[in-house]
Each structure stands twice: as structure tokens, then as C-alpha cells.
Design brief:
It comes from Alistipes indistinctus YIT 12060. The protein is of the alpha+beta class. It has three domains: 162 residues, Nucleotidyltransferase, domain 5 (2-Layer Sandwich), CATH 3.30.420; 60 residues; 92 residues, General secretion pathway protein M, EpsM (Gyrase A, domain 2). It contains nine helices and twelve strands. The radius of gyration is 52 Å and the shape is rod-shaped. The termini are far apart.
Length: 343
């Protein structure tokens, strides 16, 4: 039998072998046993343990309690009148059934019931309860010659048949006992892990706080910049809308009328209504040439510029057309010009 993870977590078990010598007196032997493969090893034995030993050895381990001796009777669990009488009166009798798969020798062939009067075991139950030992899974058994082999059998049966994950999750006395034992075994490693996490968190929290503060500063700066940018954009759009609404003519109509007077010899390079006086600058409103139309172009025939100006002045909206610039490009030899029209 391989040593499973659950078995490693559970560790050794404590077995209490109790034997009544008469109705009022009993002896007790305590064994601490561990399972390695198919072998059960006795780690500690204590005969007639006192209350301190019981609390120490039973506090952090599963406890298996078996009672035998005087006044304890074993009968086949075959539905006989005596067995039915015992089972029908739980206030008078305490009993347990034999474990069919408990390796107790070739003479055990059938399932049996072992019972005793509760009045005889009440002092024992009180002593165990004062020591914090669960008695819900107590077994009543026939006495053997030596308590140590009997304790080894009990431990082997526990590791083979009862120590299972599904036992731990079931609301039974065995499940409760197993869960408490696991909790006691795991509490120090879990507490150590939690302490380690707290230390790591404490060491990392300062760095994380610095990073969060830096990110908050950067985010606040970005929000401020975005807010300023949005405000400036709104101001610019408002300014453009305001200038657009000042003219008596639509921009598209003005541009179309201007293009209709351009001779074939001229190539326009710029045509703008209320053009910007200078480039846009951050945190400053745009500056427009109010109620002005600007025409720029180039031509190889300087006389074509005169014809363009004459054509514009013949159109009522463009009567104030004025030649602002006329010069020859030294590299290309073409004539470049600029005409400004007051609208």
C-alpha cells in the first residue's frame, strides 16, 4: 500500500485499547502508530496514561477507541431476538458492528454485533470527553491476548478502509475527526504561508504605492492637458464658425466664382476665404484675415495675371481685387503672384 497524499497529511494515529476487568474497573493502553507500506510501526506506547498524556497524544491525531473485556458480549448480527432487543433500546445498551474487512483472523467469518450496558461505560465516556477524545466512533470488541496486535489491526483498518477523501467531506463522526486532525496538522504550514504572503505584500506595497502615485500624477497631467486641448479646440471651432458667418456669401459660391475667372495659362496654388494670417500656435486663438479672399498661383504668361484681375473686378463681389505680389521664380522661370480681394 503506497503512502498516499492524504495519509502523509494525516500522519500517525492514536489507538486507545480499553479493557474492563470488572463492571467498575478498566485498564487503558495508548498507542501511537504510523503506516509505512504494509507495515504498522509503533511510535509510542503508554499504559495507564493520565489526563495530560491523553490530551497531548490525542489532540492532533485521529483517535481510534476500542473497548473489550468484562460485560461486553459479541453475538452474530443475524436478527435474533436478543440482537433486536439490544438495537431497540439505545438508552440501555451501546453497541458496534464488526468490520467485515478488518483482518482479525480466519475465525471471523460473519458480521457480528458487540454490545455492553451503558451504565458500565458511562464513567469511561466521561473521562474521554474531559480529555477531548471523540467517542462517536468507539468500537466494542472481544478481548485479545495482547493489546499491541489489536491496536495494529485497528490502525491498519483505518489506513486501508477509512482514510479516504470522501470520508473527510462527509458529515459523519469519522469525517469530523479526520477534518479536525487535518486542520491541526495543516494550520502551521498554512499560517506560515499566510505570514510569508503578508511579508511579501508589506515589502511590495511601498513600491506599488510609489508606482500608483506616479501613475496618478501622470494621469492627472494627461487629463489636464486633454481638458486644455479640448477647450482650445472648442474655441477654434467657435472662432471659425464666427468668421464664416460674417460673410454675406457662402464660401463654396465665392470659390466657384473665383475659379470661373482663371485663364487657362494660370495654375492656382492657393485659394482661401478668410485665410489664416499666421500658423496655429498652442494656447492661442487662430488669427484670420477677416472678410478677405486670397488667390495664389503661377503662370508663364504675365499678361494672364492682368486678365485674371480684370475678370475678378468685373464680378460685383470681387471689385476690390488687388495685386499684392508679382515676382519671377529664378529656378523655374515662371511668374508667381498673389491677389487679395476685400469682400
Amino acid at each position: 500500500m503506497k503512502r498516499s497524499l492524504l495519509q502523509r497529511l494525516t500522519g500517525p494515529v492514536t489507538v486507545l485499547r480499553i479493557r474492563f476487568t470488572d463492571t467498575a474497573n478498566y485498564s487503558m493502553s495508548l498507542f501511537v502508530l504510523d503506516c509505512t507500506g504494509e507495515q504498522i510501526r509503533v511510535l509510542h506506547r503508554e499504559d495507564e496514561p493520565d489526563a495530560a498524556v491523553l490530551k497531548r497524544e490525542c489532540a492532533a491525531r485521529p483517535v481510534l477507541v476500542s473497548v473489550a473485556g468484562h460485560g461486553i458480549i459479541t453475538k452474530p448480527a443475524d436478527g435474533s431476538p436478543l440482537v433486536e432487543k439490544v438495537k431497540a433500546d439505545p438508552e440501555t445498551f451501546a453497541w458496534s458492528f464488526s468490520n467485515d474487512d478488518l483482518p482479525s483472523g480466519p475465525d471471523v467469518q460473519t458480521r457480528s454485533i458487540t454490545f455492553v450496558r451503558r451504565g458500565q461505560v458511562e464513567p469511561l465516556l466521561l473521562q474521554l470527553a474531559e480529555s477531548g477524545i471523540p467517542t462517536a466512533g468507539m468500537r466494542y470488541d472481544t478481548p485479545g491476548e495482547e493489546p499491541e496486535p489489536e491496536a495494529s489491526r485497528e490502525a491498519l483498518y483505518f489506513y486501508r478502509a477509512r482514510l479516504k477523501w470522501r470520508t473527510a467531506v462527509r458529515p459523519t463522526p469519522w469525517g469530523n475527526m479526520l477534518c479536525k486532525a487535518l486542520a491541526r496538522r495543516l494550520r502551521l504550514p498554512v499560517l506560515g504561508l499566510m505570514l510569508l504572503l503578508l511579508v511579501v505584500n508589506a515589502l511590495a506595497s511601498a513600491s506599488l504605492e510609489d508606482r500608483r502615485a506616479e501613475q496618478r500624477t501622470v494621469l492627472a497631467a494627461r487629463e489636464k492637458t486633454r481638458g486644455v486641448s479640448q477647450a482650445r479646440s472648442e474655441q477654434r471651432r467657435a472662432a471659425v464658425t464666427e468668421f464664416s458667418q460674417r460673410l454675406a456669401y457662402r464660401h463654396a459660391w465665392l470659390l466657384d466664382r473665383t475659379a470661373s475667372h482663371v485663364p487657362r495659362e494660370i495654375t492656382l496654388t492657393s485659394l482661401a476665404v478668410q485665410p489664416l494670417v499666421k500658423r496655429l500656435e498652442d494656447a492661442k486663438d487662430p488669427v484670420f484675415a477677416s472678410e478677405t479672399l486670397s488667390v495664389r498661383g503661377r503662370t508663364d504668361d504675365a499678361a494672364a495675371v492682368s486678365r485674371l484681375i480684370a475678370g475678378l473686378k468685373s464680378d460685383p463681389p470681387f471689385r476690390k481685387a488687388k495685386l499684392e505680389q508679382l515676382e519671377q521664380n529664378r529656378e523655374s522661370g515662371s511668374t508667381e503672384f498673389k491677389i487679395t480681394i476685400a469682400l
